[in-house]
Structure formats: structure tokens, C-alpha cells
Specification:
Quinone Oxidoreductase, Chain A, domain 1; 9-stranded mixed β-sheet; single chain; 2 domains
């Protein structure tokens, strides 16, 4: 889930008020932030409970309320998007100026709140990792989720690829096709591999981007063409499959992973470029972020249930207005 809000540099809010910035950061008021499944799960590594109060939220949009003396990238009144370490679901917060990006005038705070995690991941998956070329066929699993729809959006509308959307219901497949996929496959009704073969023949797909894991990952791998590429983004199905390395050898397949958040610490230039590129694409009208649902901050528990019960499609937002 994401929040859209306002921000400055070292302090920020997750809602629709403001963000404060300190010497290293800014203080934004956050009109909205987004919800992620990981935030809805108990912390089993610590026994499922904590004596400390925690504020969730990994991404937000908002308006800067204050900026520290050494802040140079944003100023009071700037509309920004940002990422944080689980404290975006608040009306105000402080954040480093490096984690803020200014929103173009023609992009709404709500659309901007959808961009960071989902579109940052999609851009790196499609371009930086899979290096998708125009005309290639791309299989996207968990296609109706926030990241799945973002991958479809970027692959179809920016890289001119042909997308096969795979999801767990006919309704989700329909949504994915409405958002740009050329065809849809409901993998709850049978073999994903067989369904893909009916669509593309024995040649297979050029790229698979998987967020489900388990048997869906294996079927995606077996659906790849010669010199195909598969990018692993997650394990929403709960099972982590072992890679049959003989398939990599026989078809000269490349299997790779993508953990977008790790780039923030390992290669910030790549991380930052994914954010600025998402904003640029949105400004140019090349991509069209999809918001599945918006909840008021006081309805945050309903929002978490919406995600945990797998009712959500696209990005789920918290509005702090």
C-alpha cells in the first residue's frame, strides 16, 4: 500500500499534509502512501510481536513543509514522491533529500504515489535486467497486482513488447488485458505451460517475469524460447522452486533475480534513475498508473484486510486527506 502526501527533506508526512526536511533530508506532508503485503504480515523473526510502536509504509507522495539548511534538491511547497524504511503511514515524517523526487506539474499526487516500488521494479526488470526488445513476447505472472500491471504498462507502452498476462482468475486476466496485455491466461484452471504454448506455439516466449514462484515459475521457465530470459521478482504463491539447470543449458536460458530496494544501497545511481524515469514516462503520458483502491488513514485495518484476503488489484493507497 502506498500513501500520497507532501514532503520537504528530512521529515515527511504520509497523508495529504506535509514533509519536513532536515540537513540531510526533508519534511513532507504525505497525501498518500501505498500498502505492501510484507507490511501486513507479523514479524515472525521476532516472535510475531514487538514492544515498540511501528509505523508502516514504504513509499509516499506529498508536499514539502520544511527543508533543512543544507538541503538543495527540494524546497518548501515542492510536490514529491519518496521511499522510506517503513514509516510512511503518518501525517508527517522526516526523510533524507536523496530519497525524494519532485513530481512534474501534470502528474497527480495519487498517480505519483503508485510509481516508486511498482514502476521502479518494472523499469529495472524490463530494461536493466531482461533488456526487452520491441516485438518480443513477454509472459507476466501475478499480472493483476501492482507490479504486474506496471510491468505490462512499461513493456507494452514503452518497449513495444507483446504481453501475455497470467493471473489466478478470469477477472484479473480481464483487467490485465484492459491495461495493455494482448492475451490472458488463468493459471488456476490448468497448466500455464500448455496455455502459453497454445498462444505462441512451440517456439516459446522471449521473456518471463515471475512474481509467484513454485509451479508457476517452473511453467514460466519451461515456456521460454531459445535464449529466453526469466526474471524473478518474488514468491507471492509462498513456494520457492528449485531451478532445473538442465533447462538453462539446453535452451541457453538466462535466469536472474531483481530486488529493486537493494539498488538503493548497492547502486544508488541505478535506483534513482528508475524513479526519475518512471516520473518522466508518466509526465510524457507513456504509462498510466493504476490505483485499485483508496482507503482513508482511519480505515487502515480495512486496507490491510483487503490486501491479505487477495481482493486487491493494482496499487492500494492510503489517503491522509
Amino acid at each position: 500500500m502506498a500513501e500520497y502526501c507532501e514532503s520537504n527533506n528530512s521529515t515527511f508526512f504520509c497523508g495529504q499534509r506535509g514533509i519536513l526536511a532536515s540537513r540531510a533530508g526533508s519534511k513532507p506532508a504525505l497525501p498518500s502512501c501505498s500498502l505492501h503485503r510484507v507490511e501486513a504480515a507479523p514479524d515472525h523473526s521476532r516472535g510475531g510481536s514487538s514492544p515498540y510502536r511501528a509505523t508502516g509504509g514504504m513509499e509516499f507522495s506529498g508536499v514539502v513543509l520544511e527543508a533543512g539548511a543544507d538541503v538543495s534538491t527540494v524546497k518548501k511547497g515542492d510536490r514529491v514522491i519518496g521511499v522510506s524504511n517503513f514509516h510512511s503511514m503518518a501525517e508527517q515524517c522526516i526523510t533524507d533529500q536523496k530519497t525524494l523526487w519532485r513530481i512534474p506539474e501534470n502528474v497527480s499526487l495519487q498517480d505519483a504515489a503508485v510509481l516508486p516500488v511498482s514502476y521502479g521494479t518494472a523499469i529495472l526488470a524490463v530494461d536493466h535486467r531482461a533488456r526487452i526488445q520491441p516485438g518480443e513476447t513477454v509472459l507476466v505472472t501475478a499480472a493483476a497486482g501492482a507490479t504486474g500491471l506496471a510491468v505490462i504498462d512499461v513493456a507494452t507502452n514503452v518497449f513495444c513488447a507483446k504481453v501475455i498476462a497470467a493471473a489466478g482468475s478470469d477477472e484479473k486476466c480481464k483487467l490485465a488485458m484492459q491495461r495493455g496485455a494482448q492475451s490472458g491466461v488463468n493459471y488456476s484452471q490448468g497448466s500455464l505451460k500448455d496455455a502459453v504454448k497454445k498462444l505462441v506455439g512451440s517456439s516459446g516466449v522471449n521473456v518471463a517475469i515471475d512474481m509467484v514462484g513454485g509451479d508457476v515459475f517452473l511453467d514460466s521457465l519451461r515456456s521460454l524460447a531459445w535464449e529466453g530470459r526469466i526474471v524473478v521478482l518474488g514468491f507471492a504463491g509462498g513456494n520457492i522452486a528449485s531451478v532445473p539447470s538442465n533447462l538453462l543449458l539446453l535452451k541457453n536460458i538466462s535466469a536472474m533475480g531483481l530486488y529493486w530496494g537493494r539498488y538503493q544501497h548497492q547502486d544508488f545511481a541505478v535506483f534513482s534513475k528508475s524513479m526519475s524515469t518512471a516520473l518522466q514516462y508518466c509526465q510524457q503520458g507513456l504509462i498510466h498508473p493504476h490505483t485499485g483502491a483508496v482507503f482513508k488513514l482511519e480505515k487502515v485495518n480495512d486496507a490491510f484486510l483487503h490486501v491479505m484476503q487477495r481482493k486487491s488489484t493494482g496499487k492500494v493507497l492510503l489517503s491522509l486527506k
